[in-house]
Amino acid sequence: MSDQQPSYMLIPASRRIIAGMVLALANFMVVLDMTIANVSVPHIAGDLGISAAQGTWVITSYAVAEAICVPLTGWLAQRFGTVRVFVTSISGFGLFSLLCGLSPTLDMLVLCRIGQGMCGGPIMPMSQTLLLRLFPPEMRGRAMGTWAMTTLLGPALGPILGGFISDNWSWHWIFFINVPIAVMVTMAALALVSPLETGKRKLPIDGIGLALLIFWVGCLQIMLDIGREHDWFGDPMIVMLVLCSAVGFAAFLIWELTEEHPVVNLRIFRNRGFSSGVIALALCYGAYFASIVVIPQWLQISLGYTATQAGIVTAFTAMSAWAMASFAARALGKIDARIMVSAAVTWLGIMALWRTHWTSSADFWTLALPQLVQGFAMPFFMVPLTTITLGAVAPADTASAAGLQNFLRTMASAVGASVMLTLWENSQRVARSEIVSKLNPGDAQASFAGAGFSPEQARQMIANLVDKESMALAINHLFLLSALALFLSAVVVWISPRPKGRVDASAAH
């Protein structure tokens, strides 16, 4: 690129809009993939002959792989060039999407989802970076607004599209649909945004820090995912994974705090505003993401909803969030960001308490209404919290802070989903024991016998009813715990000082 002219002058004005739409489409594809599989877990589990709990590995493996790759994005862009990293990531995402769809076993599917997450991690920040280079300053606000709309629209359409595809075609197609989009975006990017390529520099890479990060995060997530099936600490393998994760985490902390070029700049945690902000973010986003994993499973397994119906219920949150996004953006700067975040998170906690009254006989709108009302608060939480965390650090540390924030947010989604599923299973066992202890099987069987059921059919009906009610009680318990986590995060955010001035959040996604 010539030093005499800005980057956006290298592309004719007539092609900028098309190039911007291509970049937004790439971002939309990746965001869509975060939620499209959530409602398809029962279909995947049934087809592969695995439990629903094992099926959630498809979600958590993707999130963990993406989280690990996010901190590397800046290094990759400087080492190989922004456009090269973007095009390679899109191509890899399409390839691994194809392999996910072709997977005949859970092992292959999880492995390919890891590859998909590793390729998907750089796409969001790279598409954002290229948009800023593509448009002149006076058009960047509108371009980033379009980009932000794809970020909000993806989670809304993901559950609906995933449910429709799983019900009417096959779960394999939730991955296959990415392939033509990835091919089209790759070709269009090569044709339209190649002039925006940045220079390459040989930069040091913290290989040991990266290896330690992968090691301790991998051990932690495997332990959380398989612990339910291995009696937790009653299994020596789980104990070994816990020890490996703890030792790896301690070694990672020591190494990163002493390394000159760390893969994750942990020194930023010395900033009180940043630390309290990301703690609030992790608590809130972990509770939120876990709910959109658990709710579709409960609706399909216990209430007999189709994947499409479960997707519609789940998607109401993102729909109302999308409608409120512009209001949140206008309010930012006029109202203390801490007030906006605290009020929004408290609102989310109240919605969680609302859900503690769900029953196994709840109708569609009883389930959908809390989802819809919850969404109105989401933009007032996500956008201002980014302002709080990034506004608390020095401008030179903004990129590192954004990468660390995104890493923790994505890790919170994976860990939150695993923890919530474990608590759900444990709560079901406790609730089932309590119901059985108060049940008079003789009277129940007599009632069913009077209705024409055989003794075997009566026993099965009683067992089904007990399971259904225990799952509903467990859901109530989960949302009570979620409400407590959300109310805590609403308080934690006040540890941060009030943001001063405007914050450049372009490094965040």
From TrEMBL:
SUPFAM superfamilies reported in the protein's UniProt record: MFS general substrate transporter
Single GO term (MF): transmembrane transporter activity
Keywords recorded for this protein, A-Z: Cell membrane, Membrane, Transmembrane, Transmembrane helix, Transport
Can you give the residue ranges of the Major facilitator superfamily (MFS) profile domain?
19-500
Q: Its GO CC terms?
A: plasma membrane
Q: How does it sit in the membrane?
A: Multi-pass membrane protein
State whether keyword Transport applies. Answer: yes
Family recorded in the similarity comment: Belongs to the major facilitator superfamily. EmrB family.
Protein name, per record = DHA2 family multidrug resistance protein
